[in-house]
Amino acid sequence: MAQKVVTRFAPSPTGYLHIGGARTALFNWLYARGGGGTFLLRIEDTDRARSTPEATQAILDGMAWLGLDHDGDVISQFDRANRHAEVAHQLLAEGKAYKCFSTQDEIQAFREAARAEGRSTLFRSPWREADPATHPDLPYVIRIKAPQNGNTVIRDQVQGDVTIRNDQLDDMVLLRSDGTPVYMLAVAVDDHDMGVTHVIRGDDHLNNAARQMMVFEAMGWDIPVWAHIPLIHGPDGKKLSKRHGALGVDEYQKIGYPAAGMRNYLARLGWSHGDDEFFTDAQAQEWFDLSGIGKSPARFDFKKLENLCGQHIAASNDAALLHELEDFLASTRADALPTAKRDLLSTGMYCLKERAKTFPELIDKAEFILTDRPITPDEKSAGQLDNVSRGILHELTPRLQDVTWSRDALEAAAMAFAETKDIKFGKLAGPLRAALAGRSATPSVFDMMLVLGREESLARLNDAAQAQA
């Protein structure tokens, strides 16, 4: 029977959820969900000076916005420190680790002498084979006995086989002199205890795999499948940083990108399935595999992100889109959306979502719904409402009074009126936009009239016709 896939995302809570971390979480989520496996979340909060509850919450919020649900409780690495120490003491008892009494000054002196003699500065502890009977009553660290001959091979699903000479590996510290476990030990123990089968993470952790494998092998544990993914670079090919723009997932949420578009774009950032660019979550989960991850760093492209987000907005279910739009509005506007406005947004979603790449763009198109009478035209559309235009609106409005309120009937009535006035419909559209929305960039005037309804549309046209130029 095939082994059930278990993946994990293990961020350090020292700040916001970085866009690179979000992609790592996404890859783990897709791999687990696509194979009917388990996706776990572990907060690596052993660095007590830098870990904060606020940063942990920011990570949870970022994952919730992206829709990356995890299985089971969130695991705190710090809370498991006793278990990590237990493993170190077990290895010590089995002779696979040893007490090292070398001081920092002695280690520094060793390295300086090695450097002066042109030897490797990798510290070789004189306590590795020392008789415990000779141990002094002094502070010590516990070090693992690293293999000294041959090679360690990291069999990586992305990078291929990576070989490290064992004489390049030092006897890694497992427990510090104050009894606290080091990060490398904690990660290996947690991955084993959580049953993680696949470790999918950034390739900046590649060398860590060799050190963590020492713990796995010394304990006789199964080594997980490694998949170290290249980092994300900016458009200039340099490591993604603040100078390239937004770095935290929360910033993308505030900009107003839809979560589905963000997931789609992040999935394509370093992974591919043929030539497919736009795809759904269901397709991504079905298609995602480790063989589709490239070896080269991916380049972040805001234009591609926007283009995909536009496609996702256009393809979204109206109710789901409205729900996400409401969440965005709640975070950017002080007042809650009145029910009447919400209903109008729901009615008008079909004409708002076309060609909108972000929620602010969609909201901009929806301004005719969100605004209230009397409409105050902006500077550009105010120019459409001169005395002649107002006179035209004054004549047109009664003609629309008894028209069937359908797109075909409204369009026919407006075209017939333009014909009697010997003007092109374009001459009529400008004043209608100004009267209905107070701006010149809007959905079609007929869509706006259908969404607003007969009573509100005629009231807005009357207001504009009767206002003083």
Automatic annotation (TrEMBL):
<keyword id="KW-0067">ATP-binding</keyword>
<dbReference type="InterPro" id="IPR000924">
    <property type="entry name" value="Glu/Gln-tRNA-synth"/>
</dbReference>
<keyword id="KW-0436">Ligase</keyword>
<dbReference type="InterPro" id="IPR020751">
    <property type="entry name" value="aa-tRNA-synth_I_codon-bd_sub2"/>
</dbReference>
<dbReference type="InterPro" id="IPR020058">
    <property type="entry name" value="Glu/Gln-tRNA-synth_Ib_cat-dom"/>
</dbReference>
<protein>
    <recommendedName>
        <fullName>Glutamate--tRNA ligase</fullName>
        <ecNumber>6.1.1.17</ecNumber>
    </recommendedName>
</protein>
<dbReference type="InterPro" id="IPR049940">
    <property type="entry name" value="GluQ/Sye"/>
</dbReference>
<dbReference type="InterPro" id="IPR004527">
    <property type="entry name" value="Glu-tRNA-ligase_bac/mito"/>
</dbReference>
<dbReference type="InterPro" id="IPR033910">
    <property type="entry name" value="GluRS_core"/>
</dbReference>
<feature type="short sequence motif" description="'KMSKS' region">
    <location>
        <begin position="239"/>
        <end position="243"/>
    </location>
</feature>
<dbReference type="Pfam" id="PF19269">
    <property type="entry name" value="Anticodon_2"/>
</dbReference>
<comment type="similarity">
    <text>Belongs to the class-I aminoacyl-tRNA synthetase family. Glutamate--tRNA ligase type 1 subfamily.</text>
</comment>
<dbReference type="InterPro" id="IPR001412">
    <property type="entry name" value="aa-tRNA-synth_I_CS"/>
</dbReference>
<dbReference type="InterPro" id="IPR045462">
    <property type="entry name" value="aa-tRNA-synth_I_cd-bd"/>
</dbReference>
<feature type="domain" description="Glutamyl/glutaminyl-tRNA synthetase class Ib catalytic">
    <location>
        <begin position="4"/>
        <end position="306"/>
    </location>
</feature>
<dbReference type="GO" id="GO:0004818">
    <property type="term" value="F:glutamate-tRNA ligase activity"/>
</dbReference>
<feature type="binding site">
    <location>
        <position position="242"/>
    </location>
    <ligand>
        <name>ATP</name>
    </ligand>
</feature>
<comment type="subunit">
    <text>Monomer.</text>
</comment>
<keyword id="KW-0547">Nucleotide-binding</keyword>
<feature type="domain" description="Aminoacyl-tRNA synthetase class I anticodon-binding">
    <location>
        <begin position="324"/>
        <end position="464"/>
    </location>
</feature>
<keyword id="KW-0030">Aminoacyl-tRNA synthetase</keyword>
<feature type="short sequence motif" description="'HIGH' region">
    <location>
        <begin position="11"/>
        <end position="21"/>
    </location>
</feature>
<dbReference type="InterPro" id="IPR014729">
    <property type="entry name" value="Rossmann-like_a/b/a_fold"/>
</dbReference>
<keyword id="KW-0963">Cytoplasm</keyword>
<dbReference type="Pfam" id="PF00749">
    <property type="entry name" value="tRNA-synt_1c"/>
</dbReference>
<dbReference type="InterPro" id="IPR008925">
    <property type="entry name" value="aa_tRNA-synth_I_cd-bd_sf"/>
</dbReference>
<keyword id="KW-0648">Protein biosynthesis</keyword>
<comment type="function">
    <text>Catalyzes the attachment of glutamate to tRNA(Glu) in a two-step reaction: glutamate is first activated by ATP to form Glu-AMP and then transferred to the acceptor end of tRNA(Glu).</text>
</comment>
